[in-house]
Amino acid sequence: xxxxxxxxxxxxxxxxxxxxxxxxxxxxxxxxxxxxxxxxxxxxxxxxxxxxxxxxxxxxxxxxxxxxxxxxxxxxxxxxxxxxxxxxxxxxxxxxxxxxxxxxxxxxxxxxxxxxxxxxxxxxxxxxxxxxxxxxxxxxxxxxxxxxxxx
Length: 151
Fold this sequence. Notes:
This protein is α+β, with helices and mostly antiparallel strands. The protein has a domain at 96-151: Orthogonal Bundle (Arc Repressor Mutant, subunit A). It has 6 helices and 4 strands; from the N terminus they run αββββααααα. The protein has a two-stranded antiparallel ribbon. Strand 1 and strand 2 (44-48) form a beta hairpin. Helix 4 (99-120) packs across helix 6.
């Protein structure tokens, strides 16, 4: 383990804020689900949760593990075809998405998924929905509030 020298206190609700520098270097976005582990020597370990759904389309059908990512066969085929069709100049000049753009995109995607889940099963509990979508129950609550605010 690497000592970062960063110290954070628990707030009144027992939460810890993960510093921006650590989130950036570990590719952790706001709203990403996290897993907690306790090692044999009582060390708390936190890591980004990886569900076994496709990284691109969130499907759980025909998923394979490739380079630390889960990818479904249809997305894998699509990637293969687009790799051969895209001109080399386009591939080299693609810009990386800005963090704020990625956050908004991710939040909007999760809002759509939660809304769809509530339409399909309106009596589902937040806990069940959180397990199904691979996010925390608290995040479901935030998204529900946002959905009611948007109308």
